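User: You have something folded?
Assistant:
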Amino acid sequence: MAAVCALAMQAPDVCAFQLAEPRSGAVLRPGDAMKVRVEIPPGLPVVQVAYTLYEEDRAPEDKVDAPPQAVAQAPPFEATLQVPLEAAGGMRLLAVARVAERRGQYVLFDEVTFRVEPDAALAGLQAEMPVRFSETLGEVKFLSVRGKYADKVVRDLTPGHAGTAYRSSNDRIVRVNPDGRAQAVGVGDAEIVAVNNRRECKIRVVVQPENRENRPPVAHAGTDQTVKQGTRVRLDALLSADPEGKNPLYYWSQVRGMPVAIQDPLTLRPFFVAPVVTAPRLLRFRLVVKDEEGAESFPAYVDVTVVP
């Protein structure tokens, strides 16, 4: 690939495997037949490109259903993916190319983010309620907020990337983060208000836990890093803490970029090997810390930019 990349001194994009369609920041509609296409450096022996559609900043294990995928096995390696009818909010498209050279095979990737905005009007919001916390202070539950649209499709609007904002009526009883996670911090009743596109839903919260002395751990995923391809990269939760001073549990997952094999993902400092890239590429990781009583932190995130 070195001979090809020599061309990049005057035109840097010549050497970059990259998504050409859709463009980053594009706006699509539910049900759209989305053309997906990559640009491949001249002479690069690509034999397959796999396209996978994910929700923005969601790990693959967050979803039960397999994400939409299309595989192109011949030039020009174009394909079509249907935007799910129930989609709304931020999404990311990952393209992974398999390259076969004489010295062996390797993969390259690129990723873009875009938005899905329904044409139909949002008629109202609905949520599962009441939300009850019965085990321990520091317990975290996922809210479930759905949007009822004029096209009669009900869409998941829980995450912040779908345009939903939250506020708690009493932060001393329950806290809520932009991802739609609620955390019990005090005993009593409260209300969480979810707002999206001027529609509002009030979610009743009841906190009556058995363990009323526990306090939740705090997650800190370390500082953003820029690393070279092929290097061993350490993730770092050293600044995370449990107020009780016990040994918490660490849960690392990846929410952006081509999936890498995280070694020891349940430890304080797991590691992975940075993938091969032809241009700077972003990997994003999420950390959640849990204690022995079942309390957990809100997630923390860290970005790792991989460069050639």
